Amino acid sequence: MALPIKARAWQLKSDDISIDIVPGKIANSYEIIGCGKSGTVYKGDWHSQMVAVKRLHRVKEEIEDPEGDNFQRIKNEIAICLRLNHPRIVPFYGACIEDIQQPSFVTKYCEKGNVLDYVKHHPKVNKLELVRTSMLYEISLGMSYIHRNFIVHANLKASNILMGDDRKPLIGDFSMSQAKVKGQPDAIPQKNLSGIIYDAWTAPEIMSGGPLKYSADVYSFAITSWEIYTQDTPFSDFPEGPSKRRVVERHERPVCPSKTIPPSLKHLLELYWAPEPSERPRFVKIANQLKPLKSNGKYLRAY
Fold first, then answer.
1. CA dist., res. 181 & res. 290, Å (int)
2. Which of 138, 216, 243, 287 could be 203's S-S partner, Cβ–Cβ 3.0 to 4.6 Å?
3. Could you tell me which residue ranges the Protein kinase domain spans (predicted)?
4. Rounded Cα–Cα distance for residues 223 and 235 (Å)
């Protein structure tokens, strides 16, 4: 069910949005920041401000039925973005749906890229465990805020978390997110979801067809934390990937190398990716668990 949104509060004019051309390339070689299932993100300009412009992938059915379920999902994403305003969330400037064949979202441009790329390109960060733990703490604060607003992110991973100007993480990409209606059950049946992703960050109960709950984000957070510390692809040692047989039935999880993941964090990850959703803590508790381990911030300013 799409959330109600205030008309014109978020609408941008297509003439005010431009996509950057890659210097030295032929015309129409646009500067791509990233590409995902829902769309391609470009570096662009809006009112002389550098921004990220996500142009959504559209299919024939959406174009022929612009008010159908797929378009309702776009409006739902807009409503969710408008609801969220927090230092650890990518700022949302608005959307343009004048061209129904290619709607666009405009957000803050984060030149430092996503958290995983940032860690990989800053070797000194790898030597400072406190810096990475501080990142996890800041992400948990953002996720706690998202859940307090009755929203399940449903696609949390390192590639969807950007580094802000202050070198602190910003949670983005709410294309898969779901808002819970106050007074209704906490669980969202999968039959009410569309376009749900099954990958290495997907909680085992979702793989099994179970309903979407806040605890699914906690599982994804555990995998994301593992990503940031190891800089590896989750389940890359599984020939068949994160299969239902291994993740759901055998309760297998990514291996935590002792050289990169300290015992204190390994213990927490085991809590966060517990097979039983009810055993995973809420993000407010996760933040309290990570706070004693995090950096005081002075290291972050150095890189």
1. 30
2. 216
3. 27-294
4. 10
Least trusted range by pLDDT, from 94-98, 157-161, 286-290: 94-98
Nearest to 83 by CA among 10, 133, 141, 156: 10
The stretch 87-93 carries a mean pLDDT of: 98
Mean pLDDT value across the chain: 85
What pLDDT is recorded for position 9? 67
Known binding residue 191? Answer is: no
> pLDDT by residue (tens digit) across 115-145?
999 999 887 776 677 889 999 999 999 999 9
pLDDT for residue 273 is more than 80: yes
- What's the distance, CA 293 to chain centroid? 23
User: What is the share, in percent, of the chain residues with pLDDT greater than 90?
Assistant: 57
Report the first-to-last Cα separation within the chain, whole angstroms.
43
- Domains of the chain: residue spans and CATH: 14-108 (3.30.200.20), 115-296 (1.10.510.10)
Q: Of how many residues is the chain composed?
A: 303
